[in-house]
Amino acid sequence: IRPEGAFVAMAGQIRRTPEFDEALAGFLGRYVEVMKGLMAAAPDEPLAEQYSTLMEKMLPAIEQSMGCYRGDVASVASLDSEGGFRVTQVAGTADAEICRAFLSKVVELINSVPAGPDGARMITATENALTYGGASAVRQETAVLTGLLEAQEGEEAAEFLRAFLGGDSLVGYYGLAGDVLVATMGADAEQAFRETVDRVGGGAVGGGLDPSFFEPLSPGAGVFLMMDFEALVPMIASMAENEEEAAEAERIGAGMGRMVFGGRFSGNGLEFDMALPMETLAYWGQKIAAAAAEEEAEEEAEEEYEDESDEQTEHHDDEGHEISIEIGD
Fold first, then answer.
1. Which residues does residue 267 pair with via DSSP β-bridges, in sequence order?
2. 44, 50 in Cβ contact below 8 A?
3. Exposed, middle or buried: residue 329 (CB in 10 Å: 0-12, 13-18, 19+)?
4. I want to staple 225 with a disulfide (CB 3.0 to 4.6 A). Which of 92, 230, 261, 311 is the partner?
């Protein structure tokens, strides 16, 4: 899977053990708690309450689904030609029946959450919504709380998110194609699902995720991640209000560049690799130096202000003392 405009790519080959499954379950539990905390920040938003309820119901089902996965996974997040956001993910399965049961359970749990007072649902799911190439997919649509974002961060932030997602909801498809779990979401998610199923059905089409994504690192056992900030420039620039802001977006994207990370467990430790262009390192060095200089200037200005304030206070005290003496006379 290598769509044009990919700004994030991930590939993993993980040897699952009981300890790994336990650690993953713990991480998912913490994730659920974090999401519930975020939703609690919107007490008057009924859709947020639905999401919190669903997260709590989903955790046991996710833990029971561990046997579904084999350990190999690849994922990309990209922008299409019009700036629409898309995620494509494939994962090898160890037990297709466990996976099918899990997908059915997800649909059941989503639809079991009561709708809001106006009948609105934050998430809707339909089983067997798409059948293609021997694969049957669940269709899921998630309402994005752009109204909440607008109330907290302003209209500009909400419009940015709408443009990024292509609307006020995020559509996704997921299902089994042979022994591979395929999931797509975002712009043209249905077409992306069909294309990915075709590639899975074709066997070694493209040989999997292109290893050049992670150069100079070589993907192998472990998890590898690529982030290309420059690929985000067209989308960010399209949201600019003027040419100056667009030019600044291009400068930031080029400065941050492309970063690659790799991690693997070795014995009781974690080996971690990172690669980034020297230009990116220089960019961050300049940003840190500029921030330090600005902080130093602010501290000096604050000290000067405090000194002036002390002088004025002493002057006023003297005047007050003189006035009090005059009144006493």
1. none
2. no
3. exposed
4. 261
**Sites in the chain below the pLDDT cut of 50:** 204-205, 319-329
Q: How far apart are CA 127 and CA 108, in angstroms?
A: 9
By residue count, the chain amounts to 329
For residues 168 and 146, is the Cβ–Cβ distance under 8 A? Answer: yes
Residues 6+ positions from 107 with CB-CB distance below 8 Å? 125, 126, 127, 138
The structure tokens listed for 284 are: 């961050």
Number of Cβ within 10 Å of residue 229's Cβ equals 18
DSSP codes joined into one string, 245-291:
HHHHHHHHHHHH-EEEEEEEEETTEEEEEEE--HHHHHHHHHHHHHH
User: Strands 258-266, 169-177: parallel, antiparallel or unpaired by DSSP?
Assistant: unpaired
Beta bridge partners of 226: 9, 260
Let me know: does 136 contact 36? Beta carbons within 8 Å: no
pLDDT tens, 296-309? 888 877 777 666 66
Q: Tell me the one-letter amino acid at 63.
A: E
pLDDT at 73: 87
Distance CA 36, CA 54 (A): 10
Q: What sections of the chain are H helices per DSSP?
A: 18-40, 46-64, 96-112, 146-153, 155-165, 189-201, 233-238, 243-256, 278-328
CA distance 204 to 187: 26
Burial class (CB in 10 A: 0-12, 13-18, 19+), 175: buried
Contact partners, residue 36, CB within 8 Å, separation at least 6? 52, 55, 56
> Strand pairing partners for 262?
224, 273
Q: Quick one: pLDDT at residue 138?
A: 93
d(CA 227, CA 234): 15
